[in-house]
Amino acid sequence: MGELTYFRHLPISLTPGRTVTIDWGWNGDCRGYSLQLFAFKKTDSSGSYDGIPIGRITYPRTSTTYTIPSDATEIYFKGTLYNDGFAVAGYYQTDPVINNRNFPPNSPSHINASPSSQVSDGGYISLSWSRETDFDGDDLTYELTAEYTKKDGSPENDIIYSGSNIKYSYNIPSGKYKSVRFKVRSKDSNGAYSPSYAYTETIQVVTNRPPTTPSNIYATLTR
């Protein structure tokens, strides 16, 4: 006798208009089996669920996709097993999920800077950080900020990069700062930021002065 080992949808959070994957695992002798799928949606907090047929999927297929209706405020999925056209006792169901709940992405675990302790005034720093994931499967970008201490001791913060890369080369503005620290956080495509930043150590900005010119030159004549 056949059965399912799991029945779920991915991503976990659901957004109106977004396509999700419903997948499951077969177990046992499932030849001749099929899975009838329904979506049950609410359109307001007090309303009842309306059943929407998705289709009947036959063994050995293990997934299908479904686009969340734009008017859905809550939704769950239900699957009933059939064997040679007859319903098998029991059914599989996901937990109801409220739409529009967006989970923030993971925070970057680290950021590296080279050089890491001091840099010449006007010089370059190469920065790299960890590539992160999002619980909902959203695309991620990264926001990189420079935290300066100016020569007069006052602070200054600038967002110097925003994008999907995990590397960036930065040119320190000349003549303005005595130190800098960098921080990075992730942002998902729904606008949620990671709960924390990853930071570099503070990097000293060193002014490189040329050596002084000798004031005199002496020569000794020998015979």
Please tell me about this protein's structure.
Helix content is 0%, strand content 52%. The protein is an all-beta fold and 223 residues long. The chain folds into two domains: 96 residues, Immunoglobulin-like, CATH 2.60.40; 96 residues, Immunoglobulins (Immunoglobulin-like), CATH 2.60.40.10. The strands form four sheets. Strands 10, 12, 13, 15, 16 and 17 form a six-stranded mixed beta sheet that branches. Strands 3, 4, 6, 7 and 8 form a five-stranded antiparallel beta sheet that branches. Strand 1 and strand 2 form a beta hairpin. The model has no long low-confidence stretch (mean pLDDT 89).
- Percentage beta strand: over 45%
Taking pLDDT < 50 over at least 5 consecutive residues as the criterion, the unreliable ranges are none
Shape: elongated
CATH homologous superfamily (4th level) name of the largest domain = Immunoglobulins
* H/E series: EEEEEEEEEEEEEEEEE
Terminus-to-terminus distance: 113 Å
How many beta-strand runs? 17
**Percentage of residues assigned to helices:** under 10%
Helix/strand/pairing class, anyone? Answer: mainly beta
Question: What is the helix tally?
Answer: 0
CATH-defined fold name of the largest domain: Immunoglobulin-like
Radius of gyration: 30 Å
What's the CATH class label of the largest domain? Answer: Mainly Beta
CATH architecture of the largest domain: Sandwich
Number of domains: 2
Biggest sheet statistics: 6 strands, mixed
Mean pLDDT: 89
Oligomer description: single chain
